[in-house]
Amino acid sequence: MWISAIVSSTGRWFQVLAIPLIVYDLTGGSAGWVGLAGFTQLLPVAVLCPFAGAIADRYPRRSILIVTQSTQALVALVFVLMWFGDVRSPGAYVAVSILAGTASGLNLPAWQAFVSELVPRDTLMSAVTLNSAQFNMARMLGPSLAGVVIAQWGPGWAFALNAASYLAVIAVLALLRLPRLQNGAEGRIRPLTEFAQAVVYVKKNAGISTAVFVAAVIGFFGITAQQMSIVVAEDVFGQGERGFGWMLSAAGIGAVIASPMIAEMARRFDRSRIQEVALLLYGCGVCAMAVAPWFVVALAGMFAMGMAHIASASTLNTAIQLQVDEGLRARVLSVYLTVLLLSSPLGQLFMGQAIELFGPRETFLTFGLLFLAVAVLLASTRNLRALDFGSGTYKPSAAAEVHPSTPAPPR
Question: What is the mean pLDDT of residues 370-382?
């Protein structure tokens, strides 16, 4: 499952890289259009999370993932037909991006909740870190490979490779067999009501509400800076498609290098302490991109942001997974993902317009300083301590491995 996810996630980056490049080129270098493209890709994800969480708490998550992964493959094929069919309207690509966001919105809560079905409780932190690591390994490999493919053969082949990559995870999901997990949700689906109940549950749990707030900060300032780095690559340093690919890859390399470090640090330090350092490093990375005199310094800023991102994502996700009750797991994760994915497109829309008005360096520096201010405030008030508390009900469907000396029937 993990290996197939790396293949699929790597292919997805071909599409993630191609869309802003197409929009940027077709609009004559408009940062506002790039921000709008990011907004339309992520907004449906945030809107659909309440529905997706309710669905994932009622039906087999494996089956849900097969449907959503297949849908994303079909959307990638639509992009292939558009490019080779000589469609050159930026609005058309932005519109189809909404379909991609819709499929992704139905996929994310089920995927995040599915991780807890694959491992026992005492390995959950490592499993969450590995799940984040595969996304970031894909970020390391995907953008640099996509930059070469787009520069040599064009965006159409990037879309085609993305469509093919989904076959790996679809095949594994079809072959995977797990004991049926009895979820707590029953009866008719009432997504908005259940989402509201999950919000109330989040508010009552200090650790989960803190994680959701930190996710909003990361989405608005951190993820936005990474997605809008195309403007730094193109306008500030003139590096083109390959430069943008290298910037996203630098973040992925930082995340991959940090992954084993985070797993080890989790055994020695509280999640709150890891999160404090991660937020400060994240803000410094954004500022480094703003003031970088050379392209290599901007790459170092993205590298730092990648390390900080996986540290933040792992600690926040683990805090939620350990504190939430099983019957509300997917719905609470949908609240977390809704906030994270709504804050990011709003940040991209705001940053795109700000760059048009004030320039890329000034805008990135402002975002970085604001990010650091929030990080210092959270650290000084000790609000992050709530990430270390609490434990919800948890019934993993995968038991721990039997000791080799213990007789057991083959599995």
Answer: 91
Decide if 334 contacts 112 (C-beta within 8 A).
no
Please tell me the distance from the alpha carbon of residue 332 to that of residue 319, in angstroms, as a whole number: 12
**Residue 138 amino acid letter:** A
Query: Alpha-carbon distance 278 to 284, whole Å?
Result: 10
> Which DSSP category does 400 fall into?
P
Where along the chain do its domains lie? 2-175+191-388
Using a 10 angstrom Cβ sphere, with 0-12 exposed, 13-18 middle and 19 or more buried, the burial of residue 409 is: exposed
CA dist 150 and 327 (Å) reads 45
b/e burial code for range 201-230 (CB count within 10 A of at least 16 → b): bbeebbbbbbbbbbbbbbbbbbbbbbbbbb
Compute how many other C-beta atoms are within 10 angstroms of the C-beta atom of residue 251: 29
Question: Contact at 8 Å (CB) between 307 and 374?
Answer: no
Residue 24 has pLDDT above 60, yes or no: yes
Q: Which residue is it, tokens 């080890």?
A: 264
Q: Does domain 2-175+191-388 have CATH number 1.20.1250.20?
A: yes
Q: Which pTM value belongs to this model?
A: 0.70
DSSP 58: T
A 10 A CB-CB count for 119 gives: 18
Note the helical H segments in 324-402.
Answer: 329-358, 360-381
CB atoms within 10 A of CB 341: 26
The amino acid that residue 42 corresponds to is: L
Whole-angstrom distance, CA of residue 404 vs CA of residue 240: 54
Q: What is the DSSP letter of 236?
A: I
Alpha carbons 104 and 386: distance in angstroms, whole number: 30
> pLDDT tens across 119-150, in order?
777 777 778 778 777 876 787 778 778 878 88
Q: Enter the tokens of residue 186.
A: 């029953």
Residues 6+ apart with CB under 8 A from 405: none
Residue 331 has what DSSP assignment?
Answer: H
- Beta-carbon neighbour count of residue 59 at 10 Å? 15
Per-residue tokens: 270:
């509280």
DSSP states of 132-160:
HHHHHHHHHHHHHHHHHHHHHH-HHHHHH
